[in-house]
Amino acid sequence: MKRMRIGAGLIVLAILVLTIVVGAILVATVGRSFFSAGNIRDILTGMSVLGLVAIGQTLVILGASLDLSVVYVMSLASLIAATTMAGSPGNIVWAVVLTLLVCGAIGLANGLIVTLLKVNGFIATLGVGLILQGVLNTSFRGSAGQVPSEFQLFGATGLGPVPISTIGMLALAVLVWLLLARTRTGAHLFAVGGDPAVSRLSGLSTAPPLIVAHVVCSLCAGLAGLLLASRLGVGSPTVGQQGGYALLSIAAVVLGGTLLLGGRGSIWGTIGGVAIFAVVDNVMSVMQVNPFLKDVVRGLVIVAAVAVYSRRAVVRRRARFGPGGTRTGGDAAARAAAPEMAAATASLADRSEVGGGAVR
Amino acid sequence: MNALRTLVSPRGAVFLLLVLLLVAVAVLNPNFAEPGQLMRYIQRVAPIAIVALGQFFVIIAGEFDLSQGSLITAQVIIAGNLVGTDDTRTLPVLALMVVFGLVVGLINGLVTTLLKVPSFIVTLGMMLALLGAVMWWTGGAATGNPADSFRQIGRGGVQGVPLVGTIPWSVLILAALLAAAIWLTRRPYGKTLVALGDNSRAARYAGAREWWIITRAFIISALSATVSAVLLVGYAGVHPSVGRGYEFVAITAVVLGGVVLGGGRGWIVAAVAGAFVLEALFMLLNIAGVPSTLRDAVQGVIIIAAVAYSGVVFRARRTRAPAAPPPPEPVPAHSQGTIHTRGDQQ
């Protein structure tokens, strides 16, 4: 079990290294340095927003659900933060708390719809996303609010080449990793995502882990929205949707080796997937690829990388029967016993013919 | 009585919802009840319904096709740029579009089945790649204006029909495709597809050639998007935004029709009815004067409510079923026939 998880991570790492090597060579051909401090800062900055969203998305996907509403949560978060701060540094704390409260409530709604009303996560979050879109359209026309410069520092400063936002993202990843690896809720989330029926029969209440996953996912999206607000200086009702973060974050999670069907995966794989996207995007920006062509490349990279990965993932899923399965050796034993069985049947048949119904 | 139970059952809920919505529209706008207006309504639904038809085959097999919207966009742009003003090019370009659709579906299907990439990811990649390629080609602006003969497919119709006046081609195409699709779901192919969606391992052990069956479902889906694109060229014109979001509309329609995401359960007629419900909903919101900004929100609430309703009712029926004496008439009687549930595989 442990060996297999390392194997999964290794593949993501290998793809990442391959991407970096190819990227570095490509960047070198246009006479730029891939490993310059500025470029590394660009890559790490590019990782932070998608990373925040993908961390939350990982939890939801582990629970065999999806969250398509993250983009609208991000836009809403940026707007709530910017309008509440209204340019005054004194409001920062209150604005952040209010934003996260609203986002947590949205996540709670998602989780309750998925668990109590038994609406498929895809449809539930699509619907909640539409509702949020309506709210955004009704309440805001264009950008609004003003973020004080102190808050903008959050998105702009860094320790050496490492932006603070990326450090925050990685710290959050550690927290979520602890949640998954060290807490009961985390273990239950894996169980519920793997097989809800079996977890229920094992005595788990299946709803709470999934609700927690949805709440955390929306909180992560809220943080991503705060980060975007700090970068833009204002709140925008379309900033999330424009980035296409919902589908990209799902792609990053799957790229990181998490099964879309839930129950298997890791947060570090997701970070690896996000890093792969960031490197590919960075290389294309440096090489000044046509922005529309970038989408083509992104699409191809997603499919190709997951194709490399999923051959492995299929093997990773233990076979239920046969060698290595839960009934180890069952088939072999049956095959070995076949001659004896045949002989026994034959002798029974013989005896019944000879003895005339002596068989009990 | 039985009919009433069917209507409140998840399978019939979509029809009940459709009737309620249409009645509401007719009350608010009495003109709507005229046959000609109804025809125009069906004409508007046709592109969505056809895409939903294709999506049904993919979803019933337990997969997703997110590339439909981008494929529509790509096909619309192909038509707009290649047909030009030359009427003689209409047929060759139509053939090219069909081939392009086939190839896209084939790639989606083969990558999903042979490379074992989840279809969500495959078609997401296809969606990004197609849309990016189209935007790269056109620069994001509306280009091309196909010949009138091409546009007539989406616009024109059979003239001079008594009672309704004109029957648009798109309505006839939708009817023909729906009939073909119903036929297909009753063929061994359709049954195998449901079996694969319900339990792919069991279906494989039973001898289903999974890769080819699933791949054909993706091809059907891509071809449906192609047909829809042909209609949209005439109806909506040529612009890189045509078709955007259709994949989500199609999935929503199919799910509204009671088809289970994850596969194995659903009825194609209900899936198409889901498309009609969505369009009726848009129309109602329009007529009722709901501010355009709030329409998304209302749509979201209704989608969640409809799916939650059918889910809750379905669960109630399932928990009630075992309590009934062994195979009594009522329960099997109205799960028989049109809907393909676990029970009627044999």
Task: Give a quick precis of the structure.
The complex is a heterodimer of chains A (360) and B (346). In chain A, a hairpin with a 2-residue loop joins β1 (158-159) and β2 (162-163). In chain A, 75% of the residues lie in helices and 1% in strands.
Helix amount of chain A: over 70%
How many H/I helical runs of chain B?
15
Determine the structural class of chain A based on helices, strands and strand pairing.
Answer: mainly alpha
Number of helices of chain A: 15
Major sheet details of chain B: 2 strands, antiparallel
Q: Rg of chain A to the nearest angstrom?
A: 26 Å
State the strand order across the main sheet of chain B. Answer: 1-2
Q: Name the overall outline of chain B.
A: globular
- The termini of chain B sit apart by 28 Å
What class do helices, strands and sheet pairing of chain B give? mainly alpha
The major pleated sheet of chain A works out as: 2 strands, antiparallel
Beta-strand share of residues of chain B: under 5%
How would you state the average pLDDT of chain A, rounded?
Answer: 84
* Structural shape of chain A: globular
Cα-based radius of gyration of chain B, to the nearest Å: 21 Å
Succession of helices and strands of chain A: HHHHHHEEHHHHHHHHH
Report the end-to-end length of chain A measured between terminal Cα atoms. Answer: 48 Å
Looking across the biggest beta sheet of chain A, what order are the strands in?
Answer: 1-2
Most extensive chain interface and residues per partner: A-B, 43 and 48 residues
Number of strands of chain A: 2
Strand and helix layout:
The complex is a heterodimer of chains A (360) and B (346).
Chain A: H1 2-29, H2 37-62, H3 70-85, H4 92-115, H5 121-139, H6 149-156, E1 158-159, E2 162-163, H7 164-182, H8 184-194, H9 196-201, H10 207-232, H11 239-243, H12 245-255, H13 267-286, H14 291-316, H15 330-355
Antiparallel strand pairs in A: 1-2
Helix pairs in contact in A: 1-13, 1-14, 2-7, 2-10, 2-12, 2-13, 3-4, 3-5, 3-10, 4-5, 4-10, 6-10, 7-8, 8-10, 12-13, 12-14, 13-14
Chain B: H1 2-8, H2 10-28, H3 35-60, H4 68-83, H5 90-113, H6 119-138, H7 148-155, E1 157-161, E2 165-168, H8 169-186, H9 188-198, H10 200-205, H11 210-236, H12 246-256, H13 268-287, H14 295-320, H15 330-333
Antiparallel strand pairs in B: 1-2
